[in-house]
Structure to design on (203 residues):
């Protein structure tokens, strides 16, 4: 009986750990805290932005869906719009372990500058700890965190899940909508949407 009980307990513990590994951020609950290093080599953490709205954007310069929003200036424009509203914007570049971290950071930083992007910080999520904590699946994958640290939006950048830049003009930008609703003190018109883009690379 004892062996059976121990085995059952170990199995239950393993299942709990597996569930935790697959867990992701949930709208309406506290956003997972994180700390890391940005593309300029400076430390950055979610906690340092406490008391402000924070947008998280998963980004990959090689992804056609990301290029859709950067080549025409859409994403940089939304970043600047958010900044004008006092909203912090953190881009997150998730990549597998290995390779030259400095080179990865430099390449992302140079690309963002070339596109006229204006994130508050760009976190280099080497190994994917931040991405896994949030359940980030695509680039782009967008999140909005309120000043209390609660996640209030998760999903797509907009309503047209294509890589065609021409679709931007007729799409509803869910992030702008979420920012505007939140700042106006209104319930978000869309709190959860289905993200689209290239798969986040964890390994």
């Amino acid at each position: 009986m004892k062996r059976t009980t121990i085995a059952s307990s170990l199995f239950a513990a393993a299942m709990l750990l597996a569930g935790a590994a697959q867990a992701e951020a949930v709208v309406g609950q506290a956003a997972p805290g994180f700390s890391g290093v940005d593309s300029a080599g400076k430390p950055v953490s979610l906690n340092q932005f406490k008391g402000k709205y924070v947008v998280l954007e998963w980004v990959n310069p090689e992804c056609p869906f990301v290029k859709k929003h950067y080549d025409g200036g859409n994403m940089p424009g939304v970043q600047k719009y958010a900044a004008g509203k006092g909203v912090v914007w953190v881009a997150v570049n998730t990549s597998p372990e290995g390779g030259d971290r400095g080179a990865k950071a430099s390449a992302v930083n140079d690309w963002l500058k070339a596109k006229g992007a204006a994130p508050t910080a760009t976190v280099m999520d080497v190994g994917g700890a931040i991405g896994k904590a949030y359940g980030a699946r695509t680039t782009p994958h967008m999140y909005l965190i309120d000043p209390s640290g609660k996640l209030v939006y998760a999903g797509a950048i907009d309503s047209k899940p294509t890589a065609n830049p021409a679709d931007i003009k007729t799409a509803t930008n869910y992030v702008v909508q979420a920012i505007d609703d939140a700042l106006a003190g209104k319930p978000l018109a869309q709190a959860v949407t289905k993200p689209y883009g290239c798969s986040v690379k964890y390994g």
